[in-house]
């Protein structure tokens, strides 16, 4: 049995750990709230741009654009959104496991795909497996603005336009609720299915013409998709971290409880033993 | 006078939302003025000012490209970034301008020059609009 002092020092160190995890939990909770608000602020933009893109793409005009046409796939792009730091529970591992599995299933050699990594954890994961990371962004702030990601989004879209990859998938954790995040796979390029069920299709006058508008609109749309996924991923990251830290705090509490019990038992045993010794000693003197 | 609803929306959230009499802006194909009852239109915008006129009062919004969508009852401007004249940080815009100018002088590689040129345009646009308020 551990000595009283050992138990005592374990209790104090566990207490300190739990204070830290508790603080981290609260920090993540407030970051999560802001990230959720950011994701909400973004919704009107996404809705609008989706509406316009689908009404133009589905419109009567026979306008076409490379980003709307699928071509034979020689190289696939995978955009993977992870966090920069750990201590976020299964946030990174679940997404990386999913991507890794998908890549192994779909491709035989490393030349058939390129990786675009957002976040240090994902970058390191692919680099250590000798997979080609074409583009990377590290150190995205907790509350990213569009400017933080625009250059990556632009270069990603350019990869597709310059035919360095022929389709683009995006992987991120979709924020469902503070305790649930789902690994999500979306096909970004080529822009395939727009929900045609949208009843408010308007026929537009194009100034100067539909081609030139698609030229501006589609890259902007694809970039917005990436930004939207990043916001969603950030909200998930903070909530995953919050949950992980909450679990850590709870576990620490449990551990402290069981250690205190152990400590008290050991203390009692020590006292009992001392009394027995004194009584025994006194009895021997009589 | 009849008014029309105008939304300026960016990925970072809505920037402007009000009823105005006339929207005038610079599209890629030239100046564009829109009043209530305009035919549905889509047009890409250049880096420039959007003037929103309501009575004697005119608001200015700096937009960085993007495009304009007109519907019978609402005008939507979707841009990757946009700022109202009141919220433009003049000092920052001037710093960005100086930075871009310096980069233009030092560099002749095509890609960087292009980017610096664009950021110079954006900075000049913001400064001009900030001075109009």
What can you tell me about this protein's structure?
- Chain A: Its main location: membrane.
- Chain A: One of its GO terms (biological process) is proton motive force-driven plasma membrane ATP synthesis.
- Chain A: Pfam families: ATP-synt.
- Chain A: F-type ATPases have 2 components, CF(1) - the catalytic core - and CF(0) - the membrane proton channel. CF(1) has five subunits: alpha(3), beta(3), gamma(1), delta(1), epsilon(1). CF(0) has three main subunits: a, b and c.
- The complex is a heterodimer of chains A (286) and B (133).
- Helix content of chain A is 60%, strand content 14%.
- Chain A has five helices and six strands.
- Chain A is elongated.
- With 133 residues, chain B is α+β, with helices and mostly antiparallel strands.
- Helix content of chain B is 30%, strand content 43%.
- Chain B is built from two helices and ten strands.
- In chain B, strands 2-1-9-8-5 form a five-stranded mixed sheet, with no helix packed on it.
- In chain B, strand 1 (4-10) and strand 2 form a beta hairpin.
- The radius of gyration of chain B is 16 Å and the shape is elongated.
- The A-B interface holds A 38, 41-42, 44-45, 48-49, 52, 56, 145-147, 150, 202-208, 212-213, 215-217, 220, 223-224, 227-228 and B 7, 9-14, 27-29, 32, 39-44, 65-67, 69, 71, 76, 78, 80-81.
Q: Largest sheet of chain B, described in full?
A: 5 strands, mixed
The end-to-end span of chain A amounts to 34 Å
Strand order of the largest sheet of chain B: 2-1-9-8-5
User: What global shape of chain A is seen?
Assistant: elongated
Strand tally of chain B is: 10
**Helix amount of chain B, in percent?**
25-40%
Query: Which consecutive residue ranges of chain A, at least 5 long each, have pLDDT under 50?
Result: none
Secondary structure category of chain A: alpha/beta
Round the mean pLDDT of chain A to the nearest integer and report it. 86
Main location (chain A): membrane
GO cellular component, one term (chain A): proton-transporting ATP synthase complex
Family (chain A): Belongs to the ATPase gamma chain family.
Subcellular location (chain A): Cell membrane
């Amino acid at each position: 049995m551990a000595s009283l002092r050992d138990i005592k020092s374990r209790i104090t160190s566990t207490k300190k750990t739990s204070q830290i995890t508790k603080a981290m939990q609260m920090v993540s909770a407030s970051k999560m709230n802001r990230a959720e608000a950011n994701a909400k602020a973004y919704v009107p933009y996404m809705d609008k741009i989706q509406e316009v893109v689908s009404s133009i793409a589905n419109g009567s005009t026979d306008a076409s654009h490379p980003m709307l046409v699928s071509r034979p796939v020689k190289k696939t792009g995978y955009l993977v959104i992870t966090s920069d730091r750990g201590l976020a529970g299964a946030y990174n591992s679940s997404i990386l496991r999913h991507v890794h599995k998908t890549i192994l299933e779909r491709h035989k050699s490393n030349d058939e795909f390129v990786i675009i990594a957002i976040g240090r954890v994902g970058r390191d994961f692919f680099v250590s497996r000798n997979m080609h990371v074409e583009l990377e962004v590290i150190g995205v702030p907790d509350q990213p603005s569009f400017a933080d990601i625009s250059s990556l989004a632009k270069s990603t879209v350019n990869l597709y336009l310059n035919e360095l990859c022929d389709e683009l998938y995006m992987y991120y954790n979709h924020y469902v609720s503070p305790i649930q995040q789902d690994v999500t796979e979306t096909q970004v390029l080529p822009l395939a299915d727009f929900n045609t069920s949208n009843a408010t299709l308007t026929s537009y006058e194009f100034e100067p013409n539909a081609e030139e508008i698609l030229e501006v609109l589609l890259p902007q749309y694809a970039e917005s998709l990436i930004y939207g996924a990043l916001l969603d991923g950030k909200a998930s990251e903070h909530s995953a971290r919050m949950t992980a830290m909450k679990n850590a705090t709870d576990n620490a509490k449990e551990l402290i409880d069981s250690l205190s019990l152990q400590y008290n038992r050991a203390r009692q045993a020590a006292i009992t033993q001392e009394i027995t010794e004194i009584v025994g000693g006194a009895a021997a003197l009589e | 006078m009849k008014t029309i609803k105008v939304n300026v929306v960016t990925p970072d959230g809505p920037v402007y939302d009000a009823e105005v009499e006339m929207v005038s802006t610079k599209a890629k194909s030239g100046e564009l003025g829109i009043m209530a009852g305009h035919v549905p239109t889509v047009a890409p915008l250049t880096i420039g000012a959007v003037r929103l006129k309501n009575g004697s009062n005119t608001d200015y919004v700096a937009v960085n490209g993007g495009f304009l969508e007109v519907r019978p009852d609402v005008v939507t401007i979707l841009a990757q970034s946009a700022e109202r004249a009141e919220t433009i940080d003049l000092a920052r815009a001037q710093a960005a301008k100086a930075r871009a100018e310096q980069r233009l002088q030092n560099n002749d590689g095509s890609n960087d020059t292009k980017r610096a040129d664009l950021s110079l345009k954006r900075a000049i646009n913001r400064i001009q609009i900030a001075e109009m308020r």
